[in-house]
Amino acid sequence: MNLKPASLAAQALGWIDDKTRAVTPPIHVSSTYIRDPDNQFRSGRAYVRDHNPAFEQAESLISTLEGGAHCALFASGMAAATAVFQALAPGDHVLAPKVMYWSLRKWLLSFATHWGLQVELIDMADPSALRTALRPGRTKLVWVETPANPLWDITDIAAAAQLAHGVGARLAVDSTVATPLLTRPIEHGADLVMHSATKYLNGHSDLTAGALITREADDFWQRIRAIRVDLGGTLGSFEAWLLTRGLRTLHVRVERACRSAQAIAEHFEHHPRVAAVLYPGLPAFAGHAVAKRQMQGGFGGMLSIRVNGGDRGGEAAAIATAAHVALWKRATSLGGTESLLEHRASIEGAGTPVPPDLLRLSVGLEDAGDLIADLEQALARAQS
Ligand SMILES: *Cc1c(COP(=O)(O)O)cnc(C)c1O
């Protein structure tokens, strides 16, 4: 049966425990496994860092949803992302976006560069910028994030894959914001997909986890898996179990977040207190046409607004708006049931491409009308 994502997710692939007939899995916490009397490991398991059964259900569900060959869970999104770069060799040239998840950008420009990678940041929303920056024989990886934090720039994955493959480079996509329900990067030509499972995949702001999905189990994938085991960035058993539980409602949560985000974006698009709304679901947004092609069922639960400041300036007005919200919560992160709002520029500091009047919004599962009303009153108080 060719089941739709909702059917796959709701039952976590229809798994039933062989021994007890339970419909939810047990939590395996053992760190080690019995060796057979003749010194073999017929169970296929020796030690938890390599062979934790707690990973298997979430890994197969995520890899099925993404249409990949395999998935590997990590202790965080950062552990997953950095494993991809560490599977390269010092001297390799890599291209990444100027607009991307801030901590990874910082790591690329500090640790990864110090370690010997030739990191170049480009405008990844512009395929001609990518074409120009690719160095045949030298560029080994193109890293894309779409929609990209927190300006929601859209990269055409199919175009990027074609360009990257043309010079023998791999394409990896941070698809945290899109989730496998809205975009399946491997179908568009990507070689690797990365998720901060801390966000939508788990969806309840109660764990950190990362996931990598590969198109094929090639040598590069084996290096990534070895890095997980050797560097030890493995997920805990409780977290893996919670992640599977969160994944079962992914489709319902994402559908709702998309619908509310679209309504909030449309409400504030021509609002007198708002200078701009950045959301791929708005036809006036620069990346809308590409987003429409490669996202199905919605444009995600993330948007940003630029606050009108009048004489006081947009930065002060944005910070004051954040101070006055009641239902929205002032906090970093995204993809949980509760709606979050954050002034990104003051977090990212020098070198950020984020304008100072910008607030990033992660739309949760509250009533969309309540979220709009709360933002309305906060904008009014901030600007009075
Ligand atoms: C949060 C996030 C990460 C990092 O994930 P952690 O789980 O916090 O380590 C990477 N990319 C994006 C787009 C994110 O939102």
Poorly predicted spans: none
- Give the class from helix and strand content and strand pairing: alpha/beta
Number of strands: 12
Largest sheet: 7 strands, mixed
- Provide the spatial order of strands within the biggest beta sheet: 1-7-6-5-4-2-3
| Range of helix content | 25-40%
Radius of gyration: 21 Å
- The number of distinct helices, counting runs of at least 4 residues, comes to 15
- The chain-level mean pLDDT equals 96
Q: Give the terminus-to-terminus CA distance.
A: 59 Å
- The fraction of residues in strands falls at 15-25%
Q: Which hetero compounds are present in the coordinates?
A: pyridoxal-5'-phosphate
Shape: globular
Order of H and E elements: HHHEHEHEHEHEHEEHHHEHEHEEHEH
Structural account:
This protein is an alpha/beta fold and 384 residues long. Helices cover 38% and strands 15% of the residues. The chain has a seven-stranded mixed β-sheet, sandwiched between helices. Helix 8 (179-182) links the parallel strand 5 (170-174) and strand 6. Helix 4 packs parallel to helix 5 (102-114). The chain starts with a helix and ends with a helix. The mean pLDDT is 96. Bound molecules: pyridoxal-5'-phosphate. Pyridoxal-5'-phosphate (PLP) binds at residues 76-78, 101, 104, 145, 149, 174, 176-177, 196, 198-199, 208, 210, 334. Pyridoxal-5'-phosphate binds next to helix 4.
